[in-house]
Design goal:
eight-stranded antiparallel β-sheet, single chain, 353 residues, PH-domain like
Length: 353
């Protein structure tokens, strides 16, 4: 039986990759990666990978992040969304060669509870799972390399931010080094990074479930490293200013379609809206076009300055609106600068990929 692998890219295009169901799971992933290596995609630092087949078993690995599972009668019985990160072609090849690339044929129950999962977690699911005592991801080592400390710093900052905003039961005491460098990336020296790393390790002593907090921070370190984040949302319309102070609706959808279930996907280059049903990109805007972010009691509004003087607003209904706004602000103020430093380190020592 043939398996159709449809790769949806951030620019709205897609490619279809043929494969056979009797391929090993590792070989299936290799086929996906090989196709991307043949055609490097500058705009596709992240993509949705959809795999569909009758009777396909549920499986997951670190690089395949979206799976459709069909019954023998070709009825969709389960959909799990994941994300494949493609930092560059050499990085993609290393994914195939990575000995840690393992297919898991059984999923913990909490995976099936989520309609979408980013590396095993989404923000609002993550906090819920931590409270309920579930481990979100599994890491066999802590981040120990000097270059990894940059992204680990962001992990600690994100973790402290989210846990604080949601009044998590774990009290966090952040070191003076972390406070002084949180909004001043240039102050992050090697010795300061070591201090932050030690402080991050000390955070674990506050939790009776050390592995859970460790995995939580590990997830955010990966998020910071690859600069990608997915948030469930409801698209409630957009406005565009055509100049002269006249603001009009960009699209005139029927009332029944004005609210669309989607995901707000933040990546290194784009801010996207992805359909929750088809996983296709609805709208894609370059990150550098983002100018301001507003939040109200029930929705979030992102303001973009577009080419030719146009202004675009994306209005979204999200869970925990204020917290989501703060998270996005932190995401673009801290990780942008820190990732620049991280990439410089990687360029000096390519083996860190």
């Amino acid at each position: 039986m043939d398996v159709a692998i449809i790769v949806y890219l951030l620019d709205g295009s897609h490619v279809t990759i043929p494969a056979t169901q009797d391929m090993l799971v590792r070989d299936l992933k290799a086929a996906i990666v090989a196709r991307l290596c043949l055609k490097p995609l500058e705009a596709a630092t992240c993509g949705f990978f959809q795999i569909s087949a009758q009777g396909l078993d549920i499986f997951i690995s670190e690089d395949t992040m979206l799976v459709d599972v069909y019954s023998p009668k070709n009825r969709l019985i389960k959909r799990l969304l994941f994300t494949l990160i493609v930092p560059d072609v050499s990085g993609v090849r290393s994914v195939v060669e990575d000995s840690k690339l393992r297919a898991k044929c059984s999923l913990p129950e909490y995976y099936s509870e989520c309609s979408a999962v980013y590396r095993g977690m989404l923000i609002h699911h993550a906090l819920d799972k931590i409270r309920r005592g579930h481990v979100l991801a599994h890491s066999d080592r802590f981040l120990e390399g000097a270059s990894d400390l940059c992204c680990y710093f962001i992990a600690v900052k994100y973790g402290a931010l989210i846990l604080k905003l949601n009044q998590h039961i774990i009290p966090l005491e952040v070191s003076q080094d972390l406070k002084h460098t949180a909004w001043d990336p240039e102050a992050l020296t090697e010795s300061v990074m070591q201090g932050i790393y030690r402080d991050a390790r000390s955070l674990l002593k506050y939790s009776s479930q050390d592995a859970i907090l460790l995995d939580f921070l590990y997830c955010f370190s990966k998020l910071a490293l690859y600069d990608s984040l997915s948030i469930p949302a409801m698209w409630i319309g957009d406005l565009v200013n055509k100049g002269g102070g006249q603001t009009v609706k960009m699209t005139d959808r029927p009332d029944a379609e004005k609210s669309i279930h989607c995901y707000l996907l933040l990546t290194r280059e784009y801010i996207c809206l992805a359909s929750r049903d088809s996983m296709q990109i609805i709208k894609s805007v370059p990150v550098q076009s983002l100018r301001r972010l507003f939040y109200y009691s029930d929705y979030l509004s992102l303001y973009f300055s577009m080419p030719q003087g146009q202004e675009l607003y994306l209005n979204l209904s999200v869970i925990c609106t204020e917290n989501c706004a703060r998270l996005i602000e932190t995401y673009y103020t801290i990780s942008y600068h820190m990732l620049s430093r991280y990439r410089q380190t990687v360029e000096v020592t390519p083996g860190n990929w």
